[in-house]
Amino acid sequence: MMKSLICAVLLLSAPVLAGAAEPCLPCHAEKTPAAVAQWQGSAHAKAGVGCEKCHGSDHDKIVKGEAKVGMKVCAPCHQKAYQEHRASRHGMGLHSGWGCTRNLSDRKPGECRFCHEEGDEAPRSDVQCARFLKQSPEMAEIGCNYCHSVEDACDSCHSKHMTDLKIVRDPNSCAKCHMGPDHPQWEMWQTSLHGTLNASTGRKTGPDCQTCHMPKGTHNVSIGITMNSGGVPYPAAKAQPARGDMVNICSDCHAPSFARKELERGDQVRSQSIAILKEAEHVIWDLNDRGLLDPMPENRPPHPLSGQRLVTDSQMLYEDTSHIERLFFKMKKYDYARTVKGAYHQNPAYTHWYGNAELKMDLVDIKSEASRLKERGKKGESKAAAPGAEDELKVLKKKFERGALSEAEYAREKGKVLEKMR
Amino acid sequence: MKNLLLTLCAVIALGSLTGCAATLPAQLPAGFQVKPVARSDSGTPFDAGRNGHFATVTDGTVALTDLQGKRVTVANGGASALSFSPGGHRLAVALATTGGSLLRIVDLNGATLGETKVAGRITSVAWRSEKEVLAGALNIRKYSFGSQMVSLLFQWDGSGVPVATTLNDVTLRPHVAKLPEQLLYNQLLIAVSPYRDEIAFTSLKDPPLFTPYLRVLIRNLDTGGGSEVGQVQLGQGKVMYAPDGESLVIADTDKATRRISLPEGKPVENWPSAAVNSALSPSGRYLLLDGHLYRKEKAIATFPAGSRGVFVPDGSAIAVSYQGQLFLVSGLEDAAAPAPPADLDRVLRLRRLRSQGLITDQEYQKQLEGKESTR
C-alpha cells in the first residue's frame, strides 16, 4: 500500500520534476532508474534543482568521469555548510591523502588529474602522505581516497542523489571512515555509556557523533578538539578555546565542572601515553644512531618524502621498515590513538585493554627487540674491527641533529674523535 | 720564396677542397707554434690524450688521429661526448641511439673494449680512474603540465651494468622545456676532482616564479654527500676543478668567470671573459675562456670566435678546434698536474667525512694543518 502511494506521488509529480531535469530524465529513468528515483525524492528535485545544475551539460565529459560533482558545485547554494566544512579537518582530508606519484612505477596517467588541472605548472596541493605514496593506484583509491576525498565531496557523507538528513544524522554514516584499528571512534562510542544509552533510549539521552561533533548542525567537525588527527596536543592558545567549546557542548547534559573534570582526565591519560611513546621512540633513535636497526634506513627503499632517513613522525611507514619500527608504528598509530580517543569517548575497555595495556606491552617488546639488536651488534663488533672514526662521528651527528647533544657537547665529543684520528 | 708560394697555394687548395680552415687566425705570443693535427667537425666533441692521440668527429665518424697523421675509425655516427682515460690508453665515446645512448670504451687501435646502453642523452663523460668511467645523462619525459628532467650519473667499469644514480629530478615549465637544446643540454658536464673522489656538475633549477638557472653541485662518489656551491646562468654549465681540488672555475656573469673555493663557494679569483668553451691547463697556469688564453690573470693570446680548446695532459700544448680543423698550439710553459699528497689516504678520509657533514671545513683544514705541523 505504502509503495503504491509513493509511486503514485512520484508519477503525479513527474511532469513538474521533469521540467527541472530535462533532457536527462527520459533516458536516465531507464538507464539509471535508482539515481532518478533518489533525485525525485530529494529536496533538490522539490526546489527545481535538476541534473544539469550539478552535472553540467557536457555528456561526454560526464561519461568520462571528468565532471565530478565536487564541493565547489555545492558551495554556491550551501555557503554556510561549505565554509564550516573548509574550516574543519574534514576540509583537509584530501590534502593529507595525496602526493605526487609520477616517480612511482605502474601509475595510471589519469591520476595526475587529482592534483593537476590541464595547464597547471604546479600541483594545487603540496601536502604529501608517505603511506599513500607507497600504495598501488587501486589500493590508494579504495584504501585512502574513499575517506580522504571528504575534503572535496559532500556526497562522501550525504550520498549522491539523496538529501534526506536522516542519512547524515545516523552515526553509521561516520563509521565508514571512523572505525578500525587506528581510529575506532565509532566502535568506542557504540560501547561507551553514551552509545549504549543511544541504542536503548535514543539520541535525546544517549548522544551520538553529531550531537557532540556537529552541534547545532555545524559542518565544522573539529570544534572542541584539542589535538591534531595524529594525537599531538595543540598549543595552549589553540587548545584552551577548543576546550571551552567542548565543555559548552557537554553542558547541554552535564554540569560544566563535571564535563571539564572528565575531559581533563583524558588530558592526563594523553600526557602519560605520550611519555610512554617518547620512551619507545628514544630507544629506536638510539639504535639508529648506533647503526643497529635491521635494516638501517640507508639499506632499504627510500622513504617517499624523507629519503633514506629514519622517520618516526606522522609520516612513518608500516612497510619497508625494520621490525622494531613496525612495532612502534602499531604502538603509535593504533594503541596510543585507542588509549587517548578511548579516554575522551569515555570508553573504559578501549582506554585500558585495547589501548593502554597494548601500549605498555609494546614498550616491553620494543625494549626487548632493542636488547637483541644491541647484543647482535656487540657480536658483530668482536668479529670486525672496532667502530671507526666515521661511525663515531655519524652517531654524534645524529644525536646532535635530534637534540640529544648540545652544540657545545657535540663540538667537544667530535674533537675527541678527531684527536684520536691524528 | 718559391717554396713559400707553393706552400700557400697548397694550403689554399687544400682548404677549398675540404672546407676546413687551413690556418688558425690567432694572436699568439712569441714561442707558440701552430700545427694542424686532425679534422674535427664544428660543434662536435674532441679530446687530446696523453700519448699524442686526438679523438675527433669527422663527417659524422669518430676517429683517433696520432701526431704522425695516422687515423683510425672508432665509431660510425655522431658522438655527444669523448674523453681519454687519465693514462691515455682508452677512449670513452658516447653515441646517440634511438631511445638512449651507447657508451663505448675503445683502445688506441679503435678496438671496442666494452659497450653498454644508457637511458637518456649523455651530456658528458669523464674518467675517475684508468678503469672507471663516469657518464652524465639527461632524461626528459613530457607531460601536459610540463616536462620532467632527470639527471643521472652512470658509473661503469667497462663490463657489466653501469651503476645509475639520480642526481637531480626537476619539473620544467612548458616554455622552459622548449628552450633550444644547446641551452637545455648544456649542463651536467661532469668534472672529476683531482683527488678522484668527488665530482662537480651543474643541474637545472626551474623555480615557478623566477628565471631558470643552473646549480653548481659537488658530490662525493663514495658517500653520496655533497652540497650546492654556486649558481650560474643557463647555457654556462661547464665547471672545472682547479688542480688543488679545493676550488672550481665556473661562470660568474655572462661576461666573466670566477674561481670559487670549496665547499663554501666563496670567489677567490676572477677573469673578465665569459665561461664559454672553457678549458684549464693541468697545472692551472693557463685558462682558456671564450677564445682568450689567460696565463694566471693576464690574457696572452686570442683565438678566433667560435674556437674551442682542450689542453694536452702534459701541459705542453692546447688542441684548438676551429672551422672543421683541430690545431695543436704548442709552446706553453705549463706542467703536469701536481702529484697527489703523500698522505693521500688520510686526506681522502677527511674529505669523505667533510662530504657527509661529519666535520666542518674548518675542522678539515685544521686537521690538514695539524698534520703538516707535525711533519
TrEMBL record, chain B:
State the source organism's domain of life. Bacteria
Q: Which terms are listed as keywords in the entry?
A: Signal
**InterPro entries on file:** WD40/YVTN_repeat-like_dom_sf (IPR015943)
This protein's species is Geomonas propionica
This protein is called what? SHOCT domain-containing protein
Signal sequence residues = 1-21
UniProt keyword Signal present: yes
